[in-house]
Amino acid sequence: MKAKKSLGQNFLIDENIINTIADEVAAFSNDLIIEIGPGQGALTAHLVTKKSFFIAYELDTDLIPFLRKFEGEKQIIKHQDFLTADVISDIKDIEYENFYIVGNLPYYITTPILERIIDLNLDFTKMVIMVQKEVAERFMAHPGTKDYGYFSCLLQYYFNIQKVCDVSKNAFRPIPKVESMVIALSIRKDRPKVNIEEYQEFLKGIFRQKRKTLKNNIDVSLWSKVVPVLKSHNLPESIRAEEISEDILIEIFRNIKQ
Fold first, then answer.
1. Could you tell me if 182 and 230 lie in one domain?
2. 1 band by pLDDT with thresholds 50, 70 and 90
3. pLDDT value of position 2
4. Could you tell me the CATH number of the domain that includes residue 252?
5. 157-215: pLDDT as tens digits
6. Contact by Cβ (8 Å): 58, 75
7. Do β-strands 32-36 and 53-57 pair in parallel, antiparallel, or remain unpaired?
8. Domain shared by 173 and 76, yes or no
9. Quick one: CA torsion of 217, 221, 222, 224, rounded to 10 degrees?
10. 54 and 150: one domain?
11. What is the DSSP string of 107-166?
12. What residues form DSSP beta bridges with 100?
C-alpha cells in the first residue's frame, strides 16, 4: 500500500513509538477513543485491545479494507473526513466515562484539525497527537521566543500541553523530510473568562504582523486603554505582542473592551 502525497500520508512503523502513544491512552471498557486518520492501523491494533468504545475516521478509500478487521460491537471505522464528519452525532448515544482523542496528524492539516476540535467543544480527557516537531514547539512556545504567536496563545488558552516524546523521521514509511513529536493535551480548567470569539479576533490582530510593535497592531483609538496596563507591569510602549504573557494580554483585552 503506497502512501499518498496528496493526503500527507506517512505511515508510522516504529513499534516503540506506537507503544508509547498507546500507553498514553489509559482507556478502559467504559471509555471512548476517537482516532483521527488511522492509516494502515498500526496504532489502531493497539487501541482496540483496550475494549473501549472506539471510532476511527479515515478519508482514504483504499485504506478502509485494511481497517475493517478492527470493527466490532463497540468499534467503528468511518470512511469520512474528520474535518466534515458529524462527530457530535456519532458520540451522542455512547455512554462513556473518559474520552480520548488520538492521531498521527497529516502535517498540512494539523491546525485545521485542532481548530475543528476547539469548534466542536469536545470535552475530552486527553488528546495524544503526533505532529511536525517545529509545529509542536510553536504550540508550546513561551512569551519572548520566536515561536510564540497567535496559535500558541489560542491553544494554550484552551489546553495544557505537554511533550511526550520526539519521533525520528526514520519511524515512518515513506520517510518524511522533517522530525516529529508526540504531545498530550488536556482541557484547561482555569481558563480566564472572556468572550472567546472577540478574544480570538484580538489575538489575530496583535499578531497579524509579528515584527511590528503592539502599538502598531492595535487601533490607534484604543491605545490609551493599553498604556495603563503596560505601565502597571513596567512594560515599555515599544513592546511586541510576542513578548507579552497571557495574563497581561487578557488584562489588555478586558481593558479595551470596557
1. no
2. low
3. 56
4. 1.10.8.100
5. 999 999 999 999 998 877 878 899 999 999 999 999 999 999 999 999 999 998 899 99
6. no
7. parallel
8. yes
9. 110
10. yes
11. GGGHHHHHHHHHHHT---SEEEEEEEHHHHHHHT--TTSTT-SHHHHHHHHHEEEEEEEE
12. 33, 126
**Residue 112 pLDDT:** 95
pLDDT in tens, 23-80: 999 999 999 999 999 988 999 999 999 999 999 999 989 889 889 999 999 999 999 9
Last residue of a domain, one of 163, 187, 211: 187
Count of Cβ atoms closer than 10 Å to residue 142 Cβ? 10
Bridge-based pairing of strands 126-132 and 159-167 is unpaired
Q: Rounded to whole angstroms, how far apart are CA atoms 230 and 232?
A: 5
**Biggest distance spanned by C-alpha atoms of the chain:** 63
Q: Which ranges of the chain would DSSP assign to H, the alpha helix?
A: 15-24, 44-47, 64-67, 87-91, 110-120, 133-139, 150-158, 196-206, 223-232, 246-256
CA count, 13 A, side-chain hemisphere, 250: 13
What pLDDT score was predicted for residue 210?
82
Smallest CA-to-CA distance from 228 within 258, 190, 191 is with 258
- The pTM score is 0.92
Residues in CB range of 177: below 8 A, 6 or more apart: 169
In the structure grid, which three cell numbers stand for residue 150, read together? 497567535
Residue 168, amino acid: S
